[in-house]
Design goal:
Layout lengths: L21 H27 L12 H11 L11 H7 L19 H7 L1
Length: 116
């Protein structure tokens, strides 16, 4: 598929009529946009944060198997263990709420057409 470089598909948004005090209205819009940007940055940071895991090591695999068996955890699942389940086995209550997983990412259909 060829990329089209014409601007016929560009639609102009209607011009917003400004009231009497342009400076205060502009400042209000800038403040709203700043708040939205801060919220988006916070959400982005939460969604890409990789600091939610840790590594526990033992001297050898038999020590690891013994540890997991004593906790009642199936050794076949030893590579990835749900931290909340491990905490429960250790008698620790995790009270911090789970974060909401990000939803589906929006992809522009024109971009999909260009790469597919």
């Amino acid at each position: 598929m060829a990329i089209k470089f014409d601007n016929k598909s560009i639609t102009k948004k209607p011009v917003k009529k400004m009231g009497g005090n342009i400076e205060s209205e502009c400042l209000e819009e800038v403040n709203e946009l700043s708040e939205k940007l801060r919220a988006e940055q916070s959400t982005f940071k939460d969604n890409v944060d990789a600091n939610y895991f840790t590594v526990v090591t033992f001297n050898n695999s038999k020590q690891l198997d013994e540890f997991l068996n004593k906790l009642g955890i199936n050794p076949s699942d030893k590579q990835y263990i749900d931290g909340k389940q491990l905490a429960k086995k250790l008698g620790i209550e995790i009270t911090t709420p789970d974060k909401k997983a990000p939803g589906a990412f929006k992809v522009n259909s024109k971009l999909v057409d260009m790469v597919m």
